[in-house]
Design brief:
It is a single chain. By secondary structure, the protein is an alpha/beta fold. The chain folds into 2 domains: 125 residues, Neutral Protease Domain 2 (Neutral Protease, domain 2); 101 residues, no CATH class. Helix content is 42%, strand content 13%. The protein has a 7-stranded mixed β-sheet with strand order 1-2-3-5-4-7-6. Helix 3 crosses helix 5 and helix 5 crosses helix 6. It is globular. The N terminus and C terminus are likely disordered. InterPro entries: Uncharacterised_BSP. It holds the Pfam family BSP. Keywords: Signal.
Length: 253
Amino acid sequence: MSPRQFVLALLLLISLELTHATRDQIDDHSYEVPGENQCAFELNICYIFWVLIGATQAISSTFNQTPGEDMKYNGVSILAYSFNDPLTVARTKGNLIRLNVDYLQHYRGDMPEEFAGVMYHEMTRVFQWTGNGTAPRGLINGIADYVRLKGGHASKSWPKKGSGSRWDDGFAITAYFLEYCNDLKPGFVANLNALMKYSYSEAFFVQLLGKSVHQLWGDYKLAYATRRIPGSEEGYRKPPTRSFDSFLAVSIG
């Protein structure tokens, strides 16, 4: 095993006690991927733990939750291995995040920064409420990217603010829209997430901001002087979402 491979091999079954009883467990098999291991070279243990702690704090702060008390789970398990598919980023089910090392190793750009962004998104997917599965998929992924955005890990490949044809296009498009809504009323995203604990309704937007989500989307588009055009015309391809049983497979940023 090379020194580069050894770095991530050290992460095998490491548990980290995070703030106030939130625990992350990492089971890493990236060292089993043949060839040069870029992940092991560019990601070290301290950086990975720093990212996990930062993500946990960002999520609890955004949702106004107390780690270990108000959150859906007390911890997250992360399994890193090869999907044999460089396009799929991760699959998240419950509090288990399956991270694709192929994606990171083929990523062109700042790989440690992309790793941080991916973890902020996927960890949010673990802890956010989904209206018992009734909330739009685009909103769920948009909230996850909102936490990534406010945590300072937005991808340089994201579209500009004001992009998108629908408020629930998802990912960065919806994240920027939620940022606009939260600027109208600080705490909006936290309150929206709380309302989605048991069910979902577009009436939540009226309840929290006094306007329908479609009126708010129109105001948002007007604020950035962007017309309603298909995402393909904006030069931004929405990340593919595929279902694997109840797993979520996404390509982010």
